[in-house]
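S.,

Sequence below, as promised.
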Amino acid sequence: MLQVSFIRDNKSDLIEGLKKRNFSEFNLIDEVIELDDSRKKILGELEAYNAESNSIAKEIGSLFKEGRGAEAASKKSRASEIKELSKALESSLNDVLSSLNEKLRHIPNMPNIIVPAGKSDEDNVELSRHGVVPELGEHNLPHWELTKKFGLIDFDLGSKITGAGFPVYTGKGARLQRAFINYFLDFNEKAGYKEFVPPFLVNEASGMGTGQLPDKEGQMYHCTEDNLYLIPTSEVPITNIYRDVMLKEQDLPIKMTAYSPCFRREAGSYGKDVRGLNRLHQFEKVEIVQVVHPSKSYEVLDEMVAHVEELIKQLGLPYRILRLCGGDLGFTAAITYDFEVYSAAQERWLEVSSISNFETYQTNRLKCRFKNTETKKTEFCHTLNGSSLALPRIYAAILENNQTEDGIKIPDVLQPYCGFDYIK
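The prediction came back faster than expected:
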């Protein structure tokens, strides 16, 4: 969440920035400032009472030594009165802090100045386009037909076992899925990312820490009896490794990667764009996360975009890079770049990765800090994350774009991982 000092010092710029998101609850900003004023006022009164209490304690000792018992008793009465007044103020302070934090949680991150205004994904800005879209000719089946034809994925069986959006991968289809995961992890590890296998359920504090709660509460699967949430991405558990941690400046940057299943309710998703692998309730993804020095985060963002770009190039897929507009920007992100690959069979672009810089928005919630050796001050780190990569639409595009009269050709980089060059 945003820091109160930032909100105070940048109120006008913040309002203009949030307008890019189509955010309109600007009353929250004024309420935050008012609550912070109350916090400061109560702290001032508490400090005054504390000073008076310390002074009285010294006076009482002196009065008893001088045999002035009646005056000492009067002072003791005042000390008791101060104690009760302080308790009431501390209770008020806790209420104010609770309200302040609640208000702050509902204010999204301020977009970077280069984020364009816009209402939806239609207003995102295409920055570049690469690769050649294959001419499929008569070999032009969408992936949900290809997976059935070659026995790779059974969507009906998944619906029987669980429900729609929970596919069952079988035979070479399962092996190809595993090949993707291993290749992506190896690619990330070679770039210096340390691999983790995190829990796939998280507690409420972890959801709050990375900003999924309260923003995406309705999209997460919730185990109510234990108050645990199935993760929507491994970003949540691996970023929370550094919740309530004071890092050393020389520890930065921290580079992490993890594979996990991801669980999303996708409430309200209907229509042709959700067929097959296009939108699932359970899917697999490999994630990259960095915790970095604030002065380095935009340099690191460029590095992460280049890293994902090279990964997609290696798969031989046509792709484009987008800068998201304010209306399509995630609640916690200051800026996001999307990668989309082109599906020749569906004749549409499919999002396969988002790379975001959250600046201090997550670390303020997480209390992830470091001590700046130059300024000697404690500062919040910056966090970034990206999909490297999300599997379903990559899987779909590989099948659709590589279909030939001999079957489906597997990209060269994946062949050592899956053990075959064609699905026939």
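The mean pLDDT is 94.

Coffee later?
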